[in-house]
Every structure is written in structure tokens, then in C-alpha cells.
Hints:
With 353 residues, the chain is of the alpha/beta class. It is built from 15 helices and 17 strands. Helix 6 packs parallel to helix 8 and helix 11 packs across helix 15 (337-351). The radius of gyration is 23 Å and the shape is globular.
Amino acid sequence: MNTVSEIIKQFGDKAVLPASAVVEDKKQIIPWAPSLDIILGGGVPEGSWVTLTGEPKCGKTTTCLHFAAKAQKESNGSRNVYYLNIEGRLKPRDLNGIDGLDLDNIHVIGSYFDENDGKGRILSAEEYLQAGEHVIKNDPGCIVIIDSVSQLITEKEINSDVKELHRAPGAKLLSNFCKRMANVIPVNRNIVLAITHQIANVSGYGKSKVESGGRKIAYAVDIKLEAKRVEKWTTGKDDDYPVGQIVTWETHSTAIIAPGRKIASYIRYGNGIDETTEIIGLAIDTGFITKKGSWMTCSFMENHLDILGVEEWTEESERTCKAQGQEKIRNMLLENPLWLEALNNDIKEMLVG
Length: 353
């Protein structure tokens, strides 16, 4: 009996596979949002650890919940979503308005008020990570959102005096969790989205800000997104009343294509990621929507005359596909979902393949 046969006999038929099997293993890729899909090469593959980092209030939680809504779709496997509410700040406004988000199928794991004891039952870092490990092992393909790894606080820290200082016990626990889950996540095809914070680097060396949560997470990550810049998003001439914020994401690690790319994501207050606005921006950049001054024309419809219901592209057809201002062109596309679907497919075919 040769060496490979001995391993197969001891550990199972699939314990040893040719490297070609790794290449041929086509894991499902879950799309995220139009802009993010461009810099990720189409979306997030099953079995990935994703880290999102950036300044406070830059939209990390909203971006994760938007991904959860996509993962819940039947076309993406109708996946269960588990949200580790470590910070305890998940609010109705974070959940309401995100298109397609099934609130009844998001399982929020967190501290709670115990009516019998008349006081709060505060979950420790050990308990949060135990819960996370349990669902990863026992619900293959599920989505786990950790919000956030930076706020993990151990049982010892919870019960100690406030003046006592501890040397990053939460980060050590997370390190152990990453090691334990490193092989489970890809095998069970889960997706973990972990939010981290950027804190001041008091060492005096290197970057002015560093990520909290320990260094081990850097070795576990398949995809890492950093919010590099956040701007207020206004429409029209009224700069005092923003409708949302524009977040510039940069990839530091990716699972499909090369990292180091940047793209703007539009988060509309009360609605999450505004996919239609993102599609319009990408369409202008690629020429599918032509812009002259404030007027925009859905020129891509010249290649979709069947959807438009005409036999040829005429001046009348062009006028039908024209509007003044981004909000009006956005409304036009929302009122014509087949146009929007065709445009999104055209962009993906050009930029993603």
C-alpha cells in the first residue's frame, strides 16, 4: 500500500485530492453591491472570512447587512444569517429599509435583560465566540456577522474592577477562534464578516492608526475592505441636507482578483446601499449612459430595442430614454426594472466578465 492509499484508508476518500480538484471546485459567489462586486471580481465566494475596517460611522454595519440580504435570496442559497451583536448597538434604523432583508431570518445573538433576575445578562467574549463556533460548525453555508471584534470583552474583564488593566485578552481569544475556524469555514462554506475598529497607535512607530482585534485575524482573512474616505452625499444644490454618504472602499486582500482597487459606494440614509445610484455612476464611467451637462441618456437601450418595444433607435427613442439630473434618471430606471437589469448585466459583462 502506497502513502496516499494509507492516508485515504485512515482519513477518508477525499482526504487526498489532486491540486486540480482545488482549481475545479467552483464555489458559489454571492454578489454584494454593484460597486463592491467590481473590485471583488463578482462578489464573495463561499468559505470566506471578510474583514471590514474604517473610521467610526462609515457604514460598515449597513454594508454587512446589505450583504446579508443578498445571501438570504433563494438564488444565493437562502442562507441563515447570525448577527453577533457584541457592541449591543444594533438599531431598527440599521435594519429598516434595506431592500430584501428578511428580519425574521436574522438571528441576533447578544446580551439581554433577564426578567427573572431583574438585571442584564451580559455575554462575554468567550460566550460570543462559542456561539459563533457552534453555528459555523453546525449550519454549513450560513453567514456570521461579528460586530465587532474590537469590542470583545472577556469574562474576567467584565467581573474585574474598572481600574484594572488587561493586556488584550479579547484579542488572544479571537486569535484562538481564528485558528480553530481556519479549516472549518472553507470546508463548511460559511461566510464570516468581521468588523474591526481603527484606533490610535500610541507606540510612536508605523501608522498613526492601527486595527484593534489582534494580528491573527490578518492571517485568517480572505477579503479585507478598508473605508478610506467618507463624504456626505447631497443631491441638487442643497448641501445642508445630505441624503446619505459616499464611502470609498479599498481592497487590501481579495479572493478572486488582485487587491489594491478603490471604488465609491453610495449609502442612502434609511435605505442602505443605493444600488441604482451605483449602477448609474458605473454606467456613466463606461459610456452606457451618456451625459451632456445635467442631461443623461440611457444610450445602452440602443442594444435592447426588444425591451424598449421598438424596431430601431430613433430620435424619439432617445428622447424616451433621457432625463435631467441624477435623481430623475434614477427614478426612470426604478420605474423600468427591465432597463435596470439590462444595464447592470451590461456593466458586469464589461467590467467583471
